Amino acid sequence: MNYANLVDEYIKKSGLSLAAIAEKLQKDKGIKIDRSYISKLRNNPKYPATDEINRALAEVTGGDPEKLVMAAYIERAPEEVKTSLKKVSIYENFLKYILENKPLDVELENDEEMSEEERKEAIDYVNSPEFLATLDDEELDNFLNDIVDDMYFKDKDTYNKLINFLENDDRTINEAISSFRTNPMLKIPVLGQIAAGQPLDRIEYNEGYTLVDPSLLKGKDGFALKVKGDSMTGDRIHEGDMVIVSLQNEVHPHEIAVVSVNGEEATLKRVKKQNDVVMLLPSNPSYEAQLVPASQVQIIGKVVEVKFWPA
To answer: Which pairing describes strands 222-226 and 186-191: parallel, antiparallel, or unpaired?
Structure first.
């Protein structure tokens, strides 16, 4: 919603005449403007009002002062920066709704070393427009998805309220979350290790859960596995990385599989079968291929995505 439309909305919702608004602005806020100027603001003005007038106008009409100020910034901005400002505005309004309904649970690095005051300041910053303005488009999208994913699994009531809010608010906010709404993320367990034959719901090494795009698994069950060792570094897969795995007992030779030998803890390898023998192929040249009787090998799943641990 642009600046003029927002002014018009606030005026209509207030139920006040332009003359009454002008009178309240002078009496309550000490701002002297006439009804004709207010009329210009609601009809695509060449120049939006100042921050002081915008905040006062929003307050006397029952609108959101900061939202109107931001809309004015966008209106005045050069065309090349309007897109970025609009995006920040969308997320600011979205985040404002979230915080009004349920405080954001923020994980902070070095949390244990912070005082309560430092921790509060850090959380307040993450919940501020200033923080949002530092993020690029991809980071903003990830930030939004993280919030909504967490809400979807932990608080369905607030999630449903959010969807209702988006359906009745600015269309651009609706568009910002449409991908999540049409393709909700899938919750899968994160495992530290796995052996053949273990049902996912009975594995003792469950380290929590992560969310993935369901299209990755193509209807199959799946899990995430923390990588141990360096046998697949040729594929840039290092210890500490996480792989997303679809449960299946067959893979093509070029695909990376999660494989267990004799029921032992599974490893990542490419698999090439020749008659009754299976060749397990690492991608790190420091390791040699293993020849194992096919009867001793069980393929648990196929790696469909790698989440690299930052260097």
So the answer is: parallel
**Helix or strand or coil: residue 290?**
strand
Cα dist from 107 to 110, 123, 146, 152, 191, whole Å:
10, 9, 12, 18, 21
Average the pLDDT over 73-88 and give the result. 62
78 and 8 Cβ atoms separated by less than 8 Å: no
The catalytic position among 231, 246, 260, 302 is 231
Task: Output the average pLDDT for the chain.
Answer: 76
pLDDT greater than 50 at residue 31: yes
Tell me, yes or no, if 231 is annotated catalytic. Answer: yes
pTM of the model: 0.44
Active-site option among 24, 67, 87, 269: 269
Q: Please report where in the chains the tokens 């030779």 appear, as a residue.
A: 253
Structure-token pair, residue 186? 């899938």
pLDDT (tens digit, 9 = 90+) per residue, 98-140? Answer: 555 555 555 555 556 667 777 777 666 666 656 666 666 666 6
Question: 85: which residues sit within 8 A by CB, 6+ positions away?
Answer: 70, 73, 74, 77
C-alpha distance from residue 309 to each of 138, 253, 306 (Å): 18, 26, 9
Greater confidence (87 vs 124) lies with 124
Q: Which domains does the chain have, with CATH numbers?
A: 3-76 (1.10.260), 79-182 (no CATH), 188-307 (2.10.109.10)
For tokens 């929590």, the residue is: 208
